[in-house]
Design brief:
heterodimer, A: alpha/beta, Rossmann fold, 5-stranded parallel β-sheet, 5 helices, B: alpha/beta, TIM Barrel, 4-stranded parallel β-sheet, 12 strands, 48% helix
């Protein structure tokens, strides 16, 4: 079984990448293939890398408050590349009222700062299992 | 692992290992400070090596400056928040800029979309500075400008604003953060490559020493490095390695160490083990004095003095039970007060949710007033001096910092350690280990992995982003552009390019450019053309 491929991405200008890097380490330690975009990427750049890397998921990390904007744009850029099957997940400083808003846009899961590793891994492993991809 | 490690047998704590790797004994006594020489290692407050503080009477003669971080949306809103904070007893300003400004992008740049005025004030031209500082006494209120890659531009705008409002340059005091190496390690607001970034910092130091004698052109930040995952020892060691990188660069320009060493300040973090942080600050002060006097042969006592802002603490705050962060903040502020800091800027309890609401910012401000005016933290200098534990710990941390600095030197210095991604990797790996330790319960976070209270989503008042900000900001930019004299703008930008290319100090032409209302974006484009852009080294 092939391994789950996740692109961890920093959309926009926000430079706080502690969370993004921590999640990249977490998923890699759990046996997933992880690519990290680095800082200051546009939604179009992120979608292009996701397609090129054949990612199963894109994890967006946003701490500036621009999460709704970033998620909407990345989802649209993926759709424009016929890659709407790539799941989008959001982490960072996300106030509770915005979680529903993100889900309504089509975001598959939201993990605000302080989320448990078990929940995060559980989500990816379950999603991977559904698609016959190893989340281990 | 970062975070205090406790090895227990039942209820009994067998071993305590601090983040710094120091093992804490159950009891300290005279033997632990047997090698300590008062005159050599502590000195009176205000005397070398300044372990006990840089002023003879410390907070008796002057309380620490309270400088809460603020800046919202448009310059008008920021101006109103400044007035509010000053009216409530804040004694210095600390300007937050939005991300486009920090990245050298104008508000109408497509890359700025969604971010204009979001986490700080939007600045496109000098006009924005003029509005933000209108009615503020710049001769009495010092201002921190939290901006790095384009700190030179912000400093020029601050000077131009002061000139316009009639404040003499030898009375104003600006502290642009202006520490690009730490941006590459922790905060991410870099634009130009390492060497160009250092050169721009050199330009601002050289210029400030001559023209802005009360300003502090660089605030070297261990803060963001620690917030990104560094231990307290690494925080100080990396900050010092960064500071010496800037110092060595400026010395190469022919300035003498005593011309500028006293104008370098530091920004350090206050969360973590209580006594370990206090010892960290005392050790930093002593080590800095020794370094500047012994390695750099500085003769002026002011050059030996370690000036700092101790604040923040964001990485210690929790999303769970956010009200607990008010309590944490009070202890962090106490750490800061016991550290002998010159300035304090405390994180607000709601920062896991939002940029601080007015109420949260006010609580942080009042926390400082309570310490200063109810709790007696102004009464006497360095009250923990002579404590067997605190002195032993201070000595232990100084030694560890020296070792860590030697490691960086072996790697060829901080500029190279950042270019190769060595520091970034070190810090990111530790952040992961720390989070893992919290998740596995090896480091206790109250309300997160122990004493967890079942709570509905906490009721935190969110600072709402006003999408109208961008439109208003872009509209003003248009007006300013229509009113300015294009010939002056183009001419100053050409001169700026020449200065940047030939290695001449850019500050004088930068001042002409901002006075001609050249935009932050236009200026940054000139620099990008000449310097290129930083490429993040891969760390995975």
């Amino acid at each position: 079984m092939r391994r789950l491929r996740v692109l961890i991405a920093k959309p926009g200008l926000d430079g706080h990448d502690r969370g993004a890097k921590t999640i990249a380490y977490l998923l890699r330690d759990a046996g997933m293939e992880v690519v990290y975009t680095g800082l200051h990427k546009t939604p179009a750049q992120i979608a292009a890398v996701a397609v090129q890397e054949d990612a199963d998921f894109v994890g967006l990390s946003v701490l500036s408050g621009a999460h709704l904007w970033a998620a909407e744009k990345v989802l649209a850029e993926l759709a424009a590349r016929n890659a709407a099957d790539i799941g989008v997940v959001v982490g960072g400083v996300v106030p509770a009222p915005d979680v529903a808003g993100l889900k309504a846009l089509g975001v598959r899961a939201v993990f605000p700062g302080g989320s448990s590793f078990a929940d995060i891994l559980g989500f990816f492993q379950e999603s991977g299992a559904k698609e016959g991809v190893s989340g281990k | 692992m970062t975070g205090t490690t406790y090895v227990k047998e039942g209820e009994d704590i067998k071993e305590v290992i601090l983040e710094s790797g120091i093992r804490v004994k159950p009891v300290y006594g005279p033997d632990d400070v047997a090698g300590l020489d008062y005159a050599r290692d502590l000195g009176q407050p205000g005397e070398y090596p300044f372990t006990r503080g840089i002023h003879p009477r410390m907070y008796r003669s002057r309380p620490w400056t309270i400088r809460q971080y603020a800046g919202f949306g448009t310059p008008e809103e920021t101006n109103r928040r400044f007035a509010f904070l000053i009216a409530n007893g804040q004694t210095g300003l600390n300007v937050a800029f939005d991300l486009p400004t920090q990245m050298g992008l104008d508000s109408d740049d497509p890359l700025a979309e969604g971010e204009v005025g979001r986490v700080g004030m939007a600045v496109d031209t000098l006009r924005d500075f003029e509005i933000a500082f209108a009615g503020i006494d710049l001769a009495r209120t010092g201002t921190s400008l939290t901006i790095n890659a384009v700190a030179s531009v912000a400093l020029a705008m601050y000077q131009a604003t002061a000139e316009k409002y009639g404040f003499p340059l030898d009375r104003i005091s600006a502290t642009p953060q202006n520490d690009i190496l730490k941006e590459m390690i922790g905060r991410g607001m870099w634009i130009f490559p390492v060497d160009a970034g250092i050169r721009l910092i050199g330009d601002t130091i050289e210029y400030s020493v001559r023209r802005l004698p009360r300003s502090y052109p660089v605030s070297v930040c261990g803060y963001h490095i620690r917030e990104s995952g560094a231990t307290p020892v690494q925080e100080i060691a990396y900050a010092f390695a960064i500071a010496t990188t800037y110092i060595d660069h400026v010395l190469e320009r022919g300035l003498a160490i005593d011309d500028f060493a006293g104008r370098i300040s530091f920004n350090l973090d206050i969360y973590g083990n209580f006594f370990e942080q206090i010892a960290k600050f005392r050790a930093a002060r002593r080590l800095w004095a020794r370094l500047i006097r012994e390695r750099y042969q500085a003769r002026d006592p002011r050059s030996w003095q370690f000036r700092m802002l101790a604040g923040g603490g964001g990485a210690g705050l929790t999303r769970q039970q956010p009200e607990n962060n008010i309590v944490r903040g009070a202890y962090y502020a106490l750490i800061s007060a016991l550290s002998g800091t010159q300035t304090q800027a405390l994180c607000s309890y709601d920062e896991a949710y939002t940029i601080p609401s007015e109420k949260a910012a006010l609580i942080s401000l009042m926390t400082n007033h309570i310490l200063l005016e109810e709790m007696g933290l102004r009464d006497t200098a360095d009250p923990l001096a002579g404590s067997y534990y605190v002195e032993a710990l201070t000595g232990g941390i100084e030694e560890k910092v020296r070792e860590e600095m030697a490691r960086i030197e072996q790697l060829g210095g901080m500029a190279r350690a950042v270019e190769t991604g060595w520091v970034q990797r070190e810090v990111a790996r530790q952040a992961y280990q720390q989070e893992k330790a919290v998740q596995e319960g090896r480091i206790t976070k109250v309300g997160v992995n122990k004493y967890v209270v079942d709570e509905s989503e906490p009721n935190v008042e969110l600072h709402r982003y006003d999408p109208g900000v961008a439109a208003r900001q872009v509209a003003r930019l248009k007006i300013v552009k229509a009113e300015r004299e294009e010939r002056l703008v183009a001419g100053s930008l050409r001169e700026l390019e020449t200065a940047a290319r030939t290695g001449r100090n850019v500050m004088p032409v930068l001042l002409s450019a901002v006075k001609a209302y050249a935009t932050v974006g236009e200026i940054t484009r000139v620099f990008k053309d000449v310097f290129g852009e930083f490429r993040e080294p891969p760390i995975f």
